[in-house]
């Protein structure tokens, strides 16, 4: 069993005072060394042959190491021709050699592997031919570090080569975007009313396009549902001349105001017809045009009523289907 040329103590586990014992033998008191937490100290004295006394109690926690470094600069005893040889001198020389070997064996690192008990200062020299690291505390080769470095995103800026999963975390402190591919802050998006849509012309309305793939500014609005207009104001419908009306592609349900006739009109069952309106005297009098300027056909099985006299313009035909009546009063 190898003899250890040092004793190590943990503070406070092995004690807390100033007096500490050691178990190894030595030739000279100067061969005894002391370190606290790896730093050599001379703030101690030899209390007796196997004990030292620190000038002050060690820090808590700390590690105290008492160890031997045998002087090998010269032999303990030197013999000259014709001089007597004492057994003690021979023993001292033998102990000097033995102690130095013990210290070497105890403090060297075997080529087959071992554990360092202190720092290894390479003095600017390299450690070469390392294996690939497997544990987090393993030393790493340059190639391993370079490979890992190529996979990281540099703080100064970089380009991703794959997707970045944020794991439900935010990206914070973004600058305002300047090109279309930039990420945008919530504040920037909130401040943009309709991103990517250029302004339309006066009085146009924005609606979904026919393909339902985007939005567009339009003059004509198609509403697939109901339109409710609330308030105490009014709804102003389209108005124009009869000629402008005839230029329209008419469809059942259209409603407008005819500026030639000063009357409302609607398109039903394939023809334009007058719609009551313009009442006066509290609704007791209803007005209709006193001339018919375009062809008109009464709806089958319905009756029509006009306040006369009524003039039918030249070339205009009023058609009254069987079962229908037109009365002029």
Description of the structure:
With 329 residues, the protein is of the alpha/beta class. Among the domains are: 6-107, no CATH class; 239-328, no CATH class. 13% of the residues lie in helices and 22% in strands. A four-stranded antiparallel β-sheet has the order 1-7-3-4, with no helix packed on it. Strand 10, helix 4 and strand 11 (255-258) form a beta-alpha-beta unit. The radius of gyration is 55 Å and the shape is rod-shaped. The protein starts with 5 loop residues before the first strand and ends with a strand. The model has no long low-confidence stretch (mean pLDDT 88).
- Helix count equals 4
| Large-scale geometry | rod-shaped
Percent range for helical residues? 10-25%
Low-confidence stretches: none
Sheet-strand content, in percent, reads: 15-25%
What is the strand arrangement across the widest sheet?
A: 1-7-3-4
Structural class by sheet pairing and helices: alpha/beta
Radius of gyration, rounded?
55 Å
**Overall mean pLDDT score?**
88
Q: Give the total of beta strands.
A: 19
**For the terminal residues, how far apart are their CA atoms?**
139 Å
User: What is the chain-wise order of helices and strands?
Assistant: EEEEEEEHHHEEEHEEEEEEEEE
| Major beta sheet summary | 4 strands, antiparallel
């Amino acid at each position: 069993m190898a003899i250890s040329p040092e004793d190590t103590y943990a503070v406070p586990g092995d004690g807390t005072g100033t007096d500490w014992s050691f178990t190894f033998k030595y030739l000279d008191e100067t061969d005894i060394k002391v370190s606290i937490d790896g730093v050599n100290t001379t703030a101690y004295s030899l209390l007796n042959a196997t004990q030292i006394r620190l000038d002050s109690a060690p820090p808590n926690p700390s590690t105290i190491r008492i160890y031997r470094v045998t002087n090998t600069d010269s032999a303990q005893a030197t013999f000259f021709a014709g001089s007597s040889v004492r057994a003690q001198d021979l023993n001292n020389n033998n102990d000097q050699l033995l102690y130095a070997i013990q210290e070497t064996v105890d403090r060297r690192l075997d080529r087959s592997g071992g554990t360092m008990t202190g720092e290894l200062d390479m003095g600017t020299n390299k450690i070469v031919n390392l294996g690939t690291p497997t544990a987090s505390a393993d030393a790493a080769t340059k190639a391993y570090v370079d490979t890992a470095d190529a996979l990281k995103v540099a703080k100064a800026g970089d380009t991703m080569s794959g997707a970045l999963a944020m794991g439900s975390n935010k990206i914070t402190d973004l600058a305002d975007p300047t090109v279309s591919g930039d990420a945008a802050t919530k504040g920037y998006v909130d401040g943009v009313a309709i991103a990517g849509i250029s302004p339309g012309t006066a009085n146009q309305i924005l609606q979904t396009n026919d393909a339902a793939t985007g939005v567009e500014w339009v003059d004509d609005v198609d509403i697939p549902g109901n339109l409710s207009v609330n308030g105490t104001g009014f709804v102003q419908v389209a108005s124009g001349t009869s000629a402008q009306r005839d230029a329209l592609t008419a469809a059942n349900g259209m409603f407008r105001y005819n500026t030639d006739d000063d009357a409302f009109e609607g398109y039903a069952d394939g023809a334009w017809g007058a719609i009551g309106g313009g009442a006066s005297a509290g609704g007791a009098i209803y007005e209709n045009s006193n001339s018919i300027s375009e062809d008109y056909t009464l709806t089958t099985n319905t009756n029509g009523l006009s306040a006369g006299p009524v003039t039918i313009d030249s070339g205009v035909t009023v058609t009254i289907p069987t079962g229908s009546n037109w009365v002029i009063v």
